[in-house]
Amino acid sequence: MSCWLPGCPALSMCRGLATLPITCLERAKDLKTRLGILLHKPELGHRIGTSSKLQLGSRQRDSSREVLEWRESFDQLLKSKSGVTAFHTFLKTEFSEENLDFWLACEDFKKTRSKTKLASKANRIFEEFVQSEAPREVNIDHETREITRKNLSGATSACFNEAQAKTRTLMEKDSYPRFLKSASYQDMTKQATSRGISKRSHT
């Protein structure tokens, strides 16, 4: 729309645009076109949402399978970080979590490469878990306790092997079966199974 009246806004706008370089006007048109294309593609957002849902569903399936694998063997439980966490929570209810803590401390101890750190860690573990009247004394026999004490004089990554094996056997034979029968684990398996059934029904 043209206007020849002095001071007309339309006229001053046209003059302002006319003074702009052609490249600026072309860039503005290009930007407008691109924005229009994006605004008319709602499926882009849908794709992103679908992708995140698929990833979440995959994680849920993995965790469900993992929960069910814990009952296959004690080794399967110990291989799983979430399994160890669940088992530790259960042991707390029985006031026997020191057995698992000792086992985990031994696993960490075996990874120590420095000889000076090995000796200091060995003494710390022994004082906390193994010696008589230790703050978190594990349930091992006197003979195993004495063998471990002697091993400290020349600490190696294997100095807790016997005590760790005894503690592991105790957990596997005693605490682990009760964990599998516990209400908390039964609830977890029900949820895992229902997620599996739900997944199959949608395929």
TrEMBL record:
Residues 73-189 form the RGS domain. GO terms for molecular function: GTPase activator activity. One of its GO terms (biological process) is negative regulation of signal transduction. It comes from the Eukaryota. InterPro entries: RGS (IPR016137), RGS_sf (IPR036305), RGS_subdom1/3 (IPR024066), RGS_subdomain_2 (IPR044926). GO terms for cellular component: membrane. Gene3D superfamilies: 1.10.196.10, Regulator of G-protein Signalling 4, domain 2. Keywords: GTPase activation, Lipoprotein, Membrane, Palmitate, Phosphoprotein, Signal transduction inhibitor. It is a lipid-anchor. It is found in: Membrane. Regulates G protein-coupled receptor signaling cascades. Inhibits signal transduction by increasing the GTPase activity of G protein alpha subunits, thereby driving them into their inactive GDP-bound form. Plays an important role in the phototransduction cascade by regulating the lifetime and effective concentration of activated transducin alpha. May regulate extra and intracellular mitogenic signals. This is Regulator of G-protein signaling 16. The gene is Rgs16.
